[in-house]
Amino acid sequence: MALPNRYEQYSSNKVMTASPAELTLMLYEGAIKFCNIAIMGLEQSDIEKAHNNMIKTEKIIRYLRETLDMKYPVAQEFENIYVYLDRRLVEANMKKDKEILDEICEHLRSVRDTWKEVMRINREKGKA
């Protein structure tokens, strides 16, 4: 039982000490994870598993959207992406459509990878 407690403590510390950029990255990772689990649920004909994980993905996307700082011009681009992903998630859940989920996962991975690159560039600028 000591290992689960240590893992929970590590996870909690990781979140509590993360920068805003790192937290955003964690949210993208979580959305991708839940989207992948939803796809597996559809492949296994486990509709409840698929539905629950699509809802988790939707909640993350909505949170990311709600926390955008619109004083930055790039925020509107993220807003557009999040609105699109949210709409497609609802559609995927209504239709139980794996192809839509595949598309959503692809977009999420692309946004995550872009975010990682921005973080890398900012780290390098900080060292210069």
Spatial separation of the terminal alpha carbons:
45 Å
How much is the radius of gyration in Å? 16 Å
Average residue-wise pLDDT? 92
**Total number of beta strands:** 0
**Percent helix:** over 70%
**Anisotropy-based shape:** globular
Strand content: under 5%
Task: Return residue spans where pLDDT drops below 50 for at least 5 consecutive residues.
Answer: none
Main β sheet profile: none
Count of alpha/pi helices: 5
Name the helix and strand elements from N-terminus to C-terminus, one letter apiece.
HHHHH
Class from helix and strand fractions: mainly alpha
List the helices and strands and how they pair.
Elements: H1 2-16, H2 20-43, H3 47-66, H4 74-95, H5 98-127
Helix pairs in contact: 2-3, 2-5, 3-4, 4-5
Can you tell me about this structure?
The protein is globular. α2 runs antiparallel to α3, α3 (47-66) packs antiparallel against α4 (74-95) and α4 (74-95) runs antiparallel to α5 (98-127). The protein is 87% helix and 0% strand. The N and C termini lie far apart (45 Å). The chain is mostly helical and 128 residues long. The chain has helices spanning 2-16, 20-43, 47-66, 74-95, 98-127. The model has no long low-confidence stretch (mean pLDDT 92).
